[in-house]
């Protein structure tokens, strides 16, 4: 098994800062040290956008600007202009501490603030701000600071520095490791106690220390008596700062209280201060008793059957240890359905006991029954009973202290009709175990006077149980244990929830445009106090005229309610510079829910796609509206919105609107069978083949239930707030064509084609094209702004064409060329596509990085060469909740979709059945495409071939929470499709995180993206039973691998039931926090983390 680990970020570097003049033109060069060696490998791009190594990639060209020989470097870090890409942060790790004396920045912009900090990751102090107003020059800044890390902030996309040069002298190491503050003692036996703690760093809480000195005594340990305490042997080596560590100390006397403390050494050695002192008592020889068990103590983790039957007959069970066991007969039956076993349940005894015996009533003679102890989320197996002696009491001698006992039925027949436990109550001395320190405190959602905090609740004892209270404080400077008392205490904190629960609160009364730091301590009922949490910081928004405006007049603007959508209108804010114009990034975040929306539950509401844009300043202050579609019929919804600036900051919540859809609909027009094949949305003269409907925005065009041949709809034009609806009526509308297409829509905009018109049919429109090369559904001819849902596509022909084809090819003189047409806001969801000749779903072109393969002599003169055409872009794409099966080529293909793309919750099986070269993938992402690809189930099945995902995107992409099974070739094959002349190509990274790969034919990941910088492969589970499970990375690519499980043994992944394709985790498999990439839930929608740490793979435990 291979597990790649990224060292955790390091905090709290001791430093002394005296800042000199921020900009100087005259200085004594000899007093300012020597130029330090900087390399791209030293750079960490915190924000992840662009290539931050360009800050130091031209050190030779940069020369020695302090001594008058500075050169002219030209490459700079460009995180892009997209919303949320700035402010952007990166830092340099110098490898050891230096006394910095000067920092030179090459001004390459003449526009925008560039801010420099010193400190350590998670704890920074600003040194200076350079306004970059003297392009092209070297800007000199004298500083006096001892640090190992230097951080840089680009406040805007135009704040460009083409190189950084740093001067200083090497500092001597005088900083000791931090004193450990959370040493804990537990798990007593008669001769041992277990210790646990969090590793400090080499310098404070940064780096990795050298050794531990752990000692114990039967009296309290102080600095004065430290030397007389007994040293422990066999201590582990220190791990990276922030890592949880533990060891068991043996050879102790029974029934004895021991005190433990420790010190930490670095390589000098500098020695830390004394840790906290923790005590524990070894167990004695008290007489075991039968414990009282009730059905209310049982938690059924799997949810199937009645697990309380494990303890529902305690009186009948009697006392088997002493020979008076009875014959209980009821047992926990989770059922024989796939996925119902293995089944898990646990008992909470209410407090800790020293267990000595566990008796199981064998009621099956078949199947393993496994018993564990520990706590929810962290279990240790005690024993396995094969249940081979029915009907008897099976005794098991144990020696463990626990509050929780867990039981696993490995199969439906592993039946135990009752459980009896024996033991003694654990020491009744005072509770000395504090709650664990919170490690994921976050601050967000700024307004001019408030910030929202979120965190995961710790336990009463470590991460078990429920704590008593929180103490939350804030300050305008970073918070440490030393200055905790001087930080401002918040009032109104929530009471702690059960361990592992997500909690939040909003802190009000803050000042505008101010950075605040927050930290928490947690107390239990015995007033044990946790260590200090991580320190989170955020900045409130500006006050006055530049405060992000709040929408106050959001309203339902429909004159009559309908079944399909709710049209909302509001007044866009007046232009004041806080919100920028953009042709691609919306300044609105509109959400809806079936319950009232508040700031507290905002993140749980569903975001509506394709909110309107503010392209030019004249758009500000005008009325905006949009129809929110994809809603359920006859349902009441709540709507609210926020405004967003170009840095991703959001306003306070708008007024909340309640509006409903109706249960029924009326047809404006009905299209019967056999009357005509061409229908127009315009006015005209009808004949036998052509019908003109003169359709208006908001009209409903019904497709009467029955059988049709081919049909074509042309020139229907709705509006953003009143789309035209095409819907089946009265049952199934079945289109089976023997022509060159099945169902075609041309030259139309703002419409919805939906098969949701009949409660009897989940997919109420069925389309088939039976002719060789004929696509089933085509939407083309400049069509834009449309939705396609609840269709069944059955091409029924292995030599057919696409199931759904949504694009317009360049056809004459460049009028569909990229410069003239963009397909906007395409939504495809809840469709079933199967038995297609080629792709199941084909959206956008495949040649974004090259010219269209067919040129045309549009000027009528072939002698001067053919004009070059380029396929159009797509802005706004949603592909979700679709099922594709048995497609001749790719299941889903999306290309040329350059902005606002999400492909999620699709099931793709038995793809590429024809095994055609270059047409073999479950999902193919074609050139030009960006966005999110997540929560998809991709299974090649028995008939399919190829890769799970073929990725040819241009970057700026996150691929997460996908389950990819049994591929012939790569799980994900990602490659460059780079065109240096394409202005949209910005070398943005690709993040591939929290996916589950099962038995890929070659590599789980083959990464050939030399032109995408700063990519990541992290938190993935790769199981490949046949050979090496490691990914292949082109040597020229820059991709970081972190906390992946890559193994040939599927047992290492601890899946619940891999044989039944149940890849949920049965234990915690801790990974890295990926929330910065938008990974905040798992495949099932469960919040990440569901506990104290993020799990790896597609599922959170």
Automatic annotation (TrEMBL):
CDD domains: FN3 (cd00063). This is Uncharacterized protein. InterPro entries: Choice_anch_Q_dom, FA58C, FN3_dom, FN3_sf, Galactose-bd-like_sf, Ig-like_fold, PbH1, Pectin_lyas_fold. Pfam families: fn3. Gene3D superfamilies: Galactose-binding domain-like, Immunoglobulins, Single-stranded right-handed beta-helix, Pectin lyase-like. Keywords: Repeat. Residues 31-152, 286-382 form the F5/8 type C domain. Residues 179-285, 437-543, 550-664 form the Fibronectin type-III domain.
């Amino acid at each position: 098994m291979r597990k790649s680990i990224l060292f955790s970020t390091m905090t709290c570097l001791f430093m002394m800062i005296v800042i000199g003049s921020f900009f100087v033109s005259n200085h004594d060069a000899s007093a300012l040290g020597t130029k330090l060696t900087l390399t791209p490998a030293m750079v960490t791009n915190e924000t992840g956008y662009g290539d931050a190594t360009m800050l130091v990639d031209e050190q030779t060209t940069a020369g020695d600007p302090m001594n008058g020989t500075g050169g002219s470097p030209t490459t700079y870090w460009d995180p892009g202009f997209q919303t949320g890409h700035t402010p952007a942060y990166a830092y340099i790790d110098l490898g050891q501490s230096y006394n910095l004396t000067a920092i030179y920045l090459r001004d390459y912009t003449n526009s925008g603030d560039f801010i420099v900090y010193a400190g350590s990751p998670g704890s920074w102090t600003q040194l200076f701000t350079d306004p970059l107003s003297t392009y092209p020059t070297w800007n000199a800044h004298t500083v006096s600071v001892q640090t190992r890390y230097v951080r840089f902030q680009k406040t805007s996309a135009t704040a460009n520095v083409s190189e950084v040069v740093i001067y200083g002298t090497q500092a001597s190491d005088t900083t000791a490791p931090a004193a450990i503050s959370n040493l804990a003692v537990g798990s007593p036996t008669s001769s041992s106690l277990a210790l646990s703690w969090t590793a400090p760093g080499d310098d404070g809480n940064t780096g990795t220390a050298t050794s531990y000195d752990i000692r114990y005594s039967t009296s309290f340990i102080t600095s004065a008596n430290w030397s007389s305490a007994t040293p422990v042997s066999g201590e582990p080596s220190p791990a990276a700062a922030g890592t949880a560590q533990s060891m068991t100390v043996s050879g102790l006397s029974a029934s004895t209280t021991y005190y433990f403390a420790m010190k930490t050494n670095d390589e000098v050695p500098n020695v830390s201060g004394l840790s906290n002192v923790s005590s524990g008592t070894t167990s004695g020889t008290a007489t075991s008793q039968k414990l009282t068990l009730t059905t209310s103590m049982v938690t059924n983790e799997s949810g199937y059957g009645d697990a309380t039957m494990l303890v529902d007959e305690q009186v009948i069970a009697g006392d088997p240890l002493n020979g008076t066991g009875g014959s209980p007969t009821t047992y926990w039956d989770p059922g024989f359905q796939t996925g119902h076993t293995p089944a898990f349940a646990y008992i909470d005894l209410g407090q800790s006991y020293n267990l000595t015996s566990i008796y199981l009533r064998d009621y099956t003679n078949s199947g393993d029954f496994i018993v564990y102890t520990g706590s929810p989320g962290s279990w240790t197996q005690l024993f396995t009973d094969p249940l081979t002696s029915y009907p008897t009491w099976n005794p098991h001698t144990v020696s463990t202290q626990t509050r929780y006992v867990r039981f696993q039925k490995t199969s439906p027949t592993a039946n135990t009709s009752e459980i009896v436990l024996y033991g003694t109550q654990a020491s009744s001395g005072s509770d000395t175990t504090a709650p664990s320190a919170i490690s994921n405190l976050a601050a967000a959602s700024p307004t001019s006077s408030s910030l929202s905090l979120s965190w995961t609740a710790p336990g009463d004892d470590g991460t078990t149980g429920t704590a008593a209270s929180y103490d939350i404080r804030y300050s305008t400077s970073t918070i440490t244990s030393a200055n905790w008392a001087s930080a401002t205490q918040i009032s109104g904190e929530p009471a702690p929830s059960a361990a592992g629960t997500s909690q939040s609160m909003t802190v009000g009364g803050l000042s505008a445009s101010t950075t605040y730091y927050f930290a928490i301590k947690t107390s239990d009922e015995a007033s044990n106090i946790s260590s200090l949490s991580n320190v989170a910081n955020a900045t409130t928004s500006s006050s006055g005229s530049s405060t992000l405006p709040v929408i106050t007049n959001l309203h339902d603007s429909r004159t009559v309610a309908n079944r399909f959508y709710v049209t909302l209108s509001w007044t866009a804010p007046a232009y004041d510079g806080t919100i920028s114009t953009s042709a691609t990034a919306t300044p609105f975040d509109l959400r809806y829910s079936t319950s009232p929306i508040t700031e507290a539950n905002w993140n749980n509401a569903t975001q509506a796609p394709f909110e309107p844009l503010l392209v030019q300043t004249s758009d500000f202050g005008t009325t905006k509206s949009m129809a929110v579609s994809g809603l359920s019929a006859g349902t009441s919804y709540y709507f609210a919105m926020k405004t967003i600036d170009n840095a991703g900051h959001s306003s306070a919540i708008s007024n909340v609107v309640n509006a409903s859809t109706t249960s029924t609909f009326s047809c404006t027009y009905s299209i019967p069978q056999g009357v005509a094949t061409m229908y127009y949305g315009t006015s005209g003269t009808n004949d036998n083949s052509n019908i003109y409907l003169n359709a208006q925005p908001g009209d409903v065009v019904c497709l009467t239930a029955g059988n049709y041949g081919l049909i074509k709809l042309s020139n229907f034009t709705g509006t953003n707030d009143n789309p035209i609806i095409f819907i089946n009526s009265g049952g199934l509308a079945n289109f089976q064509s023997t022509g060159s297409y099945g169902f075609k829509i041309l030259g139309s905009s703002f419409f919805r084609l939906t098969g949701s018109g009949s409660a009897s049919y989940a997919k109420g429109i069925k389309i088939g094209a039976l002719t060789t090369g004929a696509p089933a559904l085509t939407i083309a001819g400049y069509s834009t702004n449309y939705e396609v849902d609840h269709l069944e596509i059955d091409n029924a022909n292995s030599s057919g064409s696409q199931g759904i084809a949504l694009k317009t090819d360049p056809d004459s003189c460049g009028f569909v060329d990229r410069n003239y047409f963009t397909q906007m806001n395409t939504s495809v969801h809840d469709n079933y596509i199967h038995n297609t000749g080629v792709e199941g779903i084909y959206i956008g072109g495949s040649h974004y990085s090259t010219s269209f393969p067919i040129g045309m002599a549009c000027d009528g003169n072939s002698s001067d060469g053919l004009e070059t055409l380029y396929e159009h872009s797509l802005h706004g794409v949603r592909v979700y909740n679709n099922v594709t099966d048995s497609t001749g080529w790719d299941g889903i293909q999306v290309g040329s979709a350059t902005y606002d793309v999400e492909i999620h919750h699709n099931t793709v099986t038995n793809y590429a059945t024809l095994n055609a070269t270059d047409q073999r993938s479950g999902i193919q992402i074609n050139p030009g495409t960006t966005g999110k690809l997540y929560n998809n189930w991709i299974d090649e099945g028995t008939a399919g071939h190829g890769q799970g995902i073929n990725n040819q995107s241009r970057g700026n992409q996150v691929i997460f929470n996908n389950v990819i099974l049994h591929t012939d070739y790569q799980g994900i094959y990602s490659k460059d499709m780079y065109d240096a002349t394409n202005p949209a190509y910005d070398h943005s990274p690709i993040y591939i995180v929290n996916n589950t790969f099962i038995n890929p034919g070659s590599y789980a990941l083959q990464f050939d993206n030399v032109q995408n910088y700063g990519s990541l492969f992290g938190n993935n589970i790769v199981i490949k039973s046949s050979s090496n499970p490691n990914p292949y990375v082109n040597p020229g690519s820059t991709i970081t691998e972190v906390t992946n499980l890559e193994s040939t043994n599927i047992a290492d992944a601890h899946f619940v039931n891999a044989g039944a394709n149940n890849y949920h985790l049965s234990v915690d498999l801790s990974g890295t926090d990926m929330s910065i990439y938008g990974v905040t839930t798992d495949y099932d929608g469960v919040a990440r983390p569901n506990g104290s740490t993020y799990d790896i793979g597609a599922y959170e435990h």
